[in-house]
Design goal:
single chain, about 290 residues, mainly alpha, MetI-like fold, 2 domains, 14 helices, about 75% helix
Length: about 290
């Protein structure tokens, strides 16, 4: 009887301890979350205010009624809806092709032995250390002058396709999978491409989802490369279209804030809906 009582007290003590740690953690993280969310909330507030109201000395914390006016002005000045359509098309195409290519490269580096494999991995690791500004101008010269692909969708999508972090991430993911499973498929006469498509990729679904979210957001937010390679007003991506509202003598801050809300809120919703896959993929790819 005494042992049961001691066990019950011990279990109750552990539960109280876990509850206390949970409360302390929430008390610590809640202010940090509010600090992180405050700029986003102010962006929403500014998107509902006219230009003259954004720089008023008083601090406004509640929405106003000028959001539709700002959206109309934004659409009139930039054809922003069309720019969003271009951004969606580019981001979806880029994400699909980049996930496919990085998965193929990761599969080859994880499951095949070939001469120079270590050198290839070292080169991929080395490219991560290079700032993007180092390769930006040579990439622009090669694409625009040598290949004459400026102002084309190919120039928007193809040059950023290779993603070093994506390759290493998928290499780690495939390395964690049991090799006996693939060997059994080979014994059964399954061809290599079918093993990759119908065995390896389904097992790597959480990692693929996490990688797809990261790549889609990278393409969605990409500003510098589309700005350099595309000079046609009717073919601008959404971030570049927003940048055109910053002029030498006038800046349409209300339109910029409204466009930023239109670009940010859908991505936050998508991330919230897919965060389970994102977290599972990142965790699975980080543990060996």
């Amino acid at each position: 009887m005494s042992s049961r009582s001691a066990s019950s007290r011990s279990s109750s003590s552990r539960s109280s301890s876990r509850l206390g740690r949970s409360i302390a953690l929430h008390l610590f993280l809640t202010p940090l979350a509010l600090i992180w969310l405050f700029p986003l909330w102010m962006m929403v507030i500014f998107s509902t205010m006219p230009d003259r109201g954004i720089f008023s000395p008083s601090i406004e914390l509640l929405p106003h009624g000028s959001f539709l006016d700002n959206v109309n002005n934004l659409q009139r000045d930039t054809n922003f809806i069309g720019a969003i359509g271009i951004s969606v098309s580019v981001a979806v195409t880029y994400t699909f092709l980049s996930v496919l290519l990085t998965s193929m490269a990761g599969w080859a580096l994880a499951r095949y032995q070939f001469f120079g494999k270590g050198v290839v991995v070292a080169i991929i690791l080395g490219t991560i250390t290079l700032p993007y500004a180092v390769v930006l101008i040579p990439q622009f010269i090669m694409v625009a002058r040598d290949f004459k692909l400026a102002n084309t969708w190919v120039a928007l999508i193809v040059p950023p396709l290779f993603n070093s972090l994506g390759v290493l991430f998928m290499r780690q993911s495939f390395s964690m999978m049991p090799g006996d499973l693939f060997d059994a498929a080979r014994v059964e006469g399954v061809k290599e491409w079918r093993i990759f498509l119908f065995v390896a990729l389904p097992l790597a679904r959480p990692m693929l989802a996490a990688l797809a979210i990261i790549l889609f957001l990278a393409s969605w937010n990409n500003y510098l490369w589309p700005l350099l390679i595309n000079s046609k007003p009717g073919a601008m991506t959404a971030p570049v279209a927003l940048g055109t509202l910053i002029g030498l003598t006038k800046v349409s801050w209300g339109g910029i804030m409204a466009g930023a809300v239109m670009l940010t809120v859908p991505m936050l919703v998508v991330f919230v809906l897919l965060q389970r896959h994102f977290v599972a993929g990142i965790a699975a790819g980080a543990i060996k």
